[in-house]
């Protein structure tokens, strides 16, 4: 069995976003997510379109080893977490709906779920949590570069975060404090049921979460570990852990929230 697992390259479903391409609706995933799955998790990325009926989610998950929810420039529509606010554009209704179905299907099927940036927010909403827009509280500049900067400068914008000493993230990165990029405006407000904060950043913003009640790991970070992770041990550790979990070798760390 161990030899078979070592030969097995897991298939990671990577959710797509709705985009306009040449004037038509299309589905898209930025290459850096796919390349990180292939190169740093030694897995096979499979794009999962979000413009489909939510009833397909269980059948899709059954064919995957894990689910990856990427970041995106779109914001989650507030009505998904019970708010009457309109929210700030861009909004991706198809992804909003399908990501929720995909998360629930994966948890029911005991398949690992990983989130990056928007993916963390989607997991929180799927588990009954809420979000807030940092721009509305005058905190947007703390967690996102100024508008109209280059891509390099946008992902070069960074801050320190504190890692919870007993959480899963600490087990993965083996560090108490990290410096991470910050490219987001939405953030967790009320924590979803069963989620445990694994790291916090400026202003107490939640920077990483893990589940405490799921049969397979649910783990997400607010920053972007797919952005040029070479040379950053904590970002490479994220992909190593995804690889470990997708290969079904996952074991909760003694004393962590997932071993409770």
Automatic annotation (TrEMBL):
GO terms for biological process: polyamine catabolic process. CDD domains: GATase1_2 (cd01745). The keyword Hydrolase applies. Gene3D superfamilies: 3.40.50.880. Keywords: Hydrolase. SUPFAM superfamilies: Class I glutamine amidotransferase-like. GO terms for cellular component: cytosol. The keyword Hydrolase applies. One of its GO terms (molecular function) is gamma-glutamyl-gamma-aminobutyrate hydrolase activity. This is Gamma-glutamyl-gamma-aminobutyrate hydrolase family protein.
